[in-house]
Write a structure and sequence with these properties.
Layout: H1 23-31, E1 38-39, H2 51-62, H3 75-89, E2 99-102, H4 104-116, E3 122-127, H5 132-139, E4 143-148, H6 158-168, E5 172-178, H7 190-203, E6 206-210, E7 234-239, E8 252-255, H8 258-272, H9 277-288, H10 293-314, E9 318-319, E10 327-331, H11 340-351, E11 353-354, E12 356-357, E13 368-372, H12 377-392
Parallel strand pairs: 1-11, 3-4, 3-5, 5-6, 6-7
Antiparallel strand pairs: 2-8, 7-8, 9-10, 10-13, 12-13
EC number: 2.6.1.-
Family: Belongs to the class-I pyridoxal-phosphate-dependent aminotransferase family.
InterPro entries: Aminotransferase_I/II_large (IPR004839), AspAT/PAT-like (IPR050596), NHTrfase_class1_PyrdxlP-BS (IPR004838), PyrdxlP-dep_Trfase (IPR015424), PyrdxlP-dep_Trfase_major (IPR015421), PyrdxlP-dep_Trfase_small (IPR015422)
């Protein structure tokens, strides 16, 4: 096996030096060492991609669609994305100049951040939130500024946003919003988004709105998009991973005003060249004949949410009411003294249930654990029994 030449040691991109591997992935690997563990660690649906979507991809392969696609996506896919987003959020994007496809929502966020940010810029990141946000911002040379939302029901309020913008000064280029939220499952109220939009306009900053879970809203809650209130300064990111159980297909998309999309598309093109053809064919099918598919999935997730929430509350866990996505962000019982990492490690070792420590999601997450209810009903029922036994014995 070759060893790197001595004179090349240390010749790397030093922006990576401070970035560690994903705590979430590392912890998932940690709990996997225990045979028989039930893992509620990752946001991975146990459901299968709808059959008609799979058949569309197979037909595309059999038709020998094996050449480069347009870099921003096939016209027919961008057209159905535009129509889909208008139906969901009420905002119309030109398929030609204001829509681009990406390799999942994570690559979309990479393209957006790389297109917007310069060394020394700042990005406000309401926490707790999916930890990759901070790492993606740091890779650009900009600085992520965590904004703890735990005192406000895990929602960034307009008042808090304005307070932080005043404190941080003109270096703030953007604020990132994840709605519905990973890890909390909280959905932003309409009035809050209206207030955020007013503050954004006052302070001249972009918003990056990650709405990957928008199709998974439960009960009386309703999803409103920040794009509806500040379309001229909001960059919209989403995809089909969660709505259509297509995590492995890696199909995301970006929408925004044409002027900034020029830069975003340029960066996106450098990152991916183009998205796989049969994946695009599947996307066209999902957004044409599969608009009702998320409803079936949502009913399953909502049933699981009700079961897990009621069971955990009986065991002494407190939580913000999860209204969307497929996570419960629960505060561990007081007798465990807020040590979420120790709690999660002991739960995995002694009771064979894997959950993710809340502190991995940034400020405001300490003392909480995230549990995904995208696992099977059987696993969730057994996991709740094991958690109950663990809590009662400690």
């Amino acid at each position: 096996m070759p060893q790197l030449a001595q004179d090349l040691q240390g010749i790397v991109n030093h922006k990576l030096d401070a970035l560690l591997p994903s705590d979430i992935r590392l912890f998932d690997k940690y709990v996997s060492q225990y045979e028989g563990v039930i893992k509620l660690t990752l946001g991975e649906p146990d459901l299968n991609t709808p059959e008609h979507v799979k058949q569309a991809a197979i037909a595309d392969i059999e038709a020998n669609d094996s050449h480069y696609a347009p870099q921003s996506g096939k016209p027919e896919l961008r057209q159905v994305i535009s129509k889909y987003v208008k139906g969901l959020n009420g905002v119309e994007y030109d398929p030609e100049s204001e829509v681009a496809v990406s390799v999942g929502a994570t690559e979309a966020l990479n393209a957006v951040l790389d297109a917007l940010l310069n060394d020394g810029d700042k990005v406000l990141v309401p926490t707790p939130v999916w930890s990759m946000y901070m790492q993606l911002v740091s890779l650009t040379g900009a600085t992520p500024v965590e904004v703890d939302t735990s005192a406000d029901g895990f929602v960034l309020t307009p008042e808090k946003l304005e307070e932080v913008l005043k404190k941080e000064g003109k270096g703030v280029k953007a604020v990132m919003i994840n709605d519905p939220s990973n890890p909390t499952g909280v959905v932003y109220p309409k009035e809050t988004l209206e207030g955020i939009a007013k503050v954004l306009k006052k302070y001249h900053v972009y918003a990056i709105s990650d709405e990957i879970y928008a199709e998974l809203i439960y009960g009386e809650a309703k999803h409103y998009s920040l794009t509806s209130f500040a379309p001229e300064r909001t960059i919209y990111v989403s995809g089909l991973s969660k709505s259509h159980a297509m995590t492995g297909w890696r199909l995301g998309f970006i929408c925004g005003p044409a002027e900034i999309m020029k830069n975003i598309c340029k960066m996106n093109n450098f990152l991916i060249t183009s998205l796989t053809n049969n994946v695009q064919a599947a996307g066209v099918e999902a957004l044409t004949n599969g608009l009702d598919d998320p409803k079936e999935f949502k009913a399953i997730y909502e049933r699981r949410l009700t079961f897990m929430e009621e069971g955990l509350r009986e065991l002494g866990f407190d939580m913000a009411r999860p209204q969307g996505a497929f996570y419960i962000f629960a505060k561990i019982p007081a007798k465990f003294k807020g040590d979420d990492v120790a709690f999660a490690k002991a739960l995995a070792k002694e009771s064979l249930v894997g959950v993710t420590p809340g502190s991995f999601f940034g400020n405001g997450g300490k003392g909480y654990i995230r549990m995904s209810y995208a696992s099977s009903d059987e696993d969730l029922h057994e996991a709740l029994k094991r958690i109950g036994k663990f809590v009662s014995e400690h």
